[in-house]
Amino acid sequence: TIQHIFKEIFKASLELQEDDHSKALLVSRKKKAEDTVVTVNGQPIGDGGQSFIVGPCAVESYEQVAAVAEAAKKQGIKLLRGGAFKPRTSPYDFQGLGLEGLKILKKVADEYGLAVISEIVNPADIETALDYVDVIQIGARNMQNFELLKAAGAVRKPVLLKRGLAATLQEFMNAAEYIISQGNDQIILCERGIRTYEKATRNTLDISAVPILKQETHLPVFVDVTHSTGRKDLLLPTAKAALAVGADGVMAEVHPDPAVALSDSAQQMNIEEFDHWINELRPLVKQKA
Amino acid sequence: TIQHIFKEIFKASLELQEDDHSKALLVSRKKKAEDTVVTVNGQPIGDGGQSFIVGPCAVESYEQVAAVAEAAKKQGIKLLRGGAFKPRTSPYDFQGLGLEGLKILKKVADEYGLAVISEIVNPADIETALDYVDVIQIGARNMQNFELLKAAGAVRKPVLLKRGLAATLQEFMNAAEYIISQGNDQIILCERGIRTYEKATRNTLDISAVPILKQETHLPVFVDVTHSTGRKDLLLPTAKAALAVGADGVMAEVHPDPAVALSDSAQQMNIEEFDHWINELRPLVKQKA
Amino acid sequence: TIQHIFKEIFKASLELQEDDHSKALLVSRKKKAEDTVVTVNGQPIGDGGQSFIVGPCAVESYEQVAAVAEAAKKQGIKLLRGGAFKPRTSPYDFQGLGLEGLKILKKVADEYGLAVISEIVNPADIETALDYVDVIQIGARNMQNFELLKAAGAVRKPVLLKRGLAATLQEFMNAAEYIISQGNDQIILCERGIRTYEKATRNTLDISAVPILKQETHLPVFVDVTHSTGRKDLLLPTAKAALAVGADGVMAEVHPDPAVALSDSAQQMNIEEFDHWINELRPLVKQKA
Amino acid sequence: TIQHIFKEIFKASLELQEDDHSKALLVSRKKKAEDTVVTVNGQPIGDGGQSFIVGPCAVESYEQVAAVAEAAKKQGIKLLRGGAFKPRTSPYDFQGLGLEGLKILKKVADEYGLAVISEIVNPADIETALDYVDVIQIGARNMQNFELLKAAGAVRKPVLLKRGLAATLQEFMNAAEYIISQGNDQIILCERGIRTYEKATRNTLDISAVPILKQETHLPVFVDVTHSTGRKDLLLPTAKAALAVGADGVMAEVHPDPAVALSDSAQQMNIEEFDHWINELRPLVKQKA
Asked: What residues in chain B have per-residue pLDDT under 70?
């Protein structure tokens, strides 16, 4: 029947359209079939192995960062996180140490031979950040801060881009496209939970996002288990799920003394908890092919 | 200061309250610390091992069900699913074969030595179902059909209860409480994805729900990867995640010829795909302690 | 270009498809252009005028219902609500007086010359309900309890169908189709808020649903401001919005002494508040054309 | 009993806490009871009257803007919107004319005696914008771009702040607090729909947000009906609802020839549609007390 023919044409054109669209994106696997390997301080991310990024939510002092760095190094971790510029819901919450925080991170990183990742929130600070960090983080609240994305795309430094609070995967990939279209393809995508009606967890970890992003893009994909769940008791099972589902790595927050942390005190592991966590996960980590 | 004291009292009473509430539920681990083992046809579920439930979305014919049963049996699977009463969004979609479907399931199950699980949608049909099924399924759309829950609680037959389309975990546990409070503690909880803004998947698999339900209740927890994702290409990675996160088992839809299936044709595996899927998962399955 | 042509065909077939689909539904305005007027006890609903349904969340006693009935009658309201069968999240919460509750409602309604609406939750109770209620309510949790919908469609009594907790408008219209396809076209649709991430209100009132449902179906549409918001302080502004947006009426809960109510105590108006509320709204009510 | 006492203390301290928190915010009505009136080009907003902001999604040319300005002026509207910097999901979509667009807006505004509102997306552009616009708009994607908020707070120019795509009302009020805490209290809040599972509308208009924001803050509140619904056929009923619910004004997009618009072509009214729309709404508009 005529209707049936229309339906077939309809389906064909639908696929054609979607095809078109995905092909147009530089982040798409249709544009580049092989995996992009992001190299951080000589360490590859996205080469088939799985790795970890740990560190305190916010940089508070040299001693605090150094304590985590020491624990991380002992466990063979190469990448240290720490917030210097903290985007906080309320203007009256601790906003981070700023440049001072970046300097502490850099000093500790140099002493322990680690690479450093830290969030930048103002396009004007991207240039400065180049001297201090090995990976620029763009946070969930800034995933569609296109000026910041363009600024991060204009430099030659790896970028870890977090999924927005309620971003679709299409929007997430398009946000990465803002960076890559400026010439910077050293991008790590990071699923960090999405906003849903369920409040048992801080956000809802969208575990399916990982295989979808791995299929549709050529970029490495991490899972931030701390912000996804907001619950220390879920960091181990969700990290296991992340490794099993095929993520290139897992990010989690560690603080020498979470009870006195200036932010996110309830959800950071202390050193002992971190040691237990990483020891449980180690047997599950895939090594580079 | 007085304010600080109030805050401490506040926190203490908050915990007290929550404590109270959870203690009151019969499904709560505070009420019963050890795991409930559900026994289906002599097979234990929730004893520390992990198992699978597979089968077609809807029962269509003896031949169709038998084909899946044969494949399932070959792979060592003990539990066969199949829909006889199908709750469908539109009244004009295929509504299932009803009692005829239950009879087909029973016949095939007997021939292949499998146990059978099928959804019941009317409290009046619970009694009839006892003669045909080994596990009564209560579907997502009926998670708060309290009359149906009470009817399922009044019989002595295992129940698999699916999480509602947009149910909170509190509501889910309370729905199970409707069953257990009638005297039936043979309940399997089943995470099947929740409704969110993200449309890349049919629903959003809430993987964190598994460890939360395992902590807060003593009941076995399954993950239905088919309805969570609605995408065949995600069945393998999400099943890996489910096993890794600690689920007691995984449910998935298998159809000998998905292209002609009367429902959910896009998301069911064919026999060959199923064989590949189960072979990939087998090494990850935890055996009974 | 060829691509452009494909896109045009694509759009045309898309519209054709959607057309098809809507045309198929008996609730669709494409199937029946003129408004359906539901007649309750001789009173028309959906004739262009706007009306109110008020009453307590749950029937607790003759005195309680009579107090509200008296207040309602004084204000010229014709339709009284009251829950006899209460679907509650926890099995340990007050479940309603059941048949006893229906008898109280009937007695009060007869004395005050009002029509009565009450929720039925079990298909087996639909027949019994015919003797006591003028409108059968099907609640949000049962919007996709298809057995109940079919039972309500098989009788000749008006039905007020509430939108499910997280139902799409397509699913809502299809649920109504389950009723109308059984031969009962006396259906009132009721928007009652949807489940979202925002917790400032109990649910999020989807005000746009009203004009969409009025456009796409020929059925009357009410707004339940009590369950939409769960906040007494929002009942007046949201009722104004509902009247302005074109709803056929507004439903709200009124209790002579909300503080001692057995359910929903925080969100019910007392008689004095109700009098103020209705007096503020009266000038905005559209009268039958 | 001891438990009951604890519960009472619990409730009391809960209220105390919430009280505390709200009192701390400068945007809170607890801090300032009377309404803030924002003065734009001598025109008051938030003085009890209701007004409109209309204009094209994006500034495309002098002729385009002038056509809308003429229509707006004829209808007695004082405030013209138009996007010069367009935050777009894809980097390959039209990004706006930038400074050139601001110049066109300024020229047209001067000729027609209108005030102009336009979105700024980079903190570095706030200073420049002062010469061209009467109200700085901060868009939904930038609601938690705290650097931009601080920059807008540091100048003496009214700001229209849109609610984020999936922002809670608490986050929205805190975002406004970032502006006011820098010394700028000339803030208009704008509800523009939130992201939910329902896709019948582009976003879900959260109409209850208006009375809540009016109660909890002293700031004027607008409703953007265009982005809330994304459907031209809903602009009239939702604008009626916005006026009825107590908004201080309504924003909508108007384009002389929507079919050729470079963005949002499906949801903008043409001049004729705009004239009809405003004529229908005029009788409902509340005049200054």
From this structure: 1-23, 289
